[in-house]
Amino acid sequence: MRPAADRRALRGWLLALLVMVLVVALDQLTKHAVRASIVPGEERRVLPGIEFVNTRNRGVAFGFLPGSHLGVTILIGLALVVLLSYFALRADRALIWLPTGMLLGGALGNIIDRLRAGSVTDFIKLPLGWPPFNLADASITIGIVLLFLLIEHQRHAEP
Q: Can you tell me the distance from the alpha carbon of 12 to that of 51, in angstroms, rounded to the nearest whole number?
């Protein structure tokens, strides 16, 4: 790599790390606040159509793969290896650090819960039967969308 590309890659790694730390911190703070202030089963209306609850999730985002600890662990591990491999090859590209940091932070936020309590604290409840989720889940979901948009944009921008 050229020195300019090396600096861009280093900057990408540092920004991804910063986003990851920020996501983990916000995720853990909000989950702690919910566990400390909302009794399991209680619902608190925050905005029209949005409630806070205190629930536990043993699956991955939005309750997918419930009760499969080994399956969840393998799935998360493989996804993180693929993500980090992709990022390592492209860390010098514009904005790729943002979804990478969001995905890593979201995954780590939920892993911390699994290690601490054996399940993940979910607390944001939307209408129409949407399963409760947390900031880590939201970060993962938004990170995936942003990553696909960046990949698609870069694919069309390359000659």
A: 36
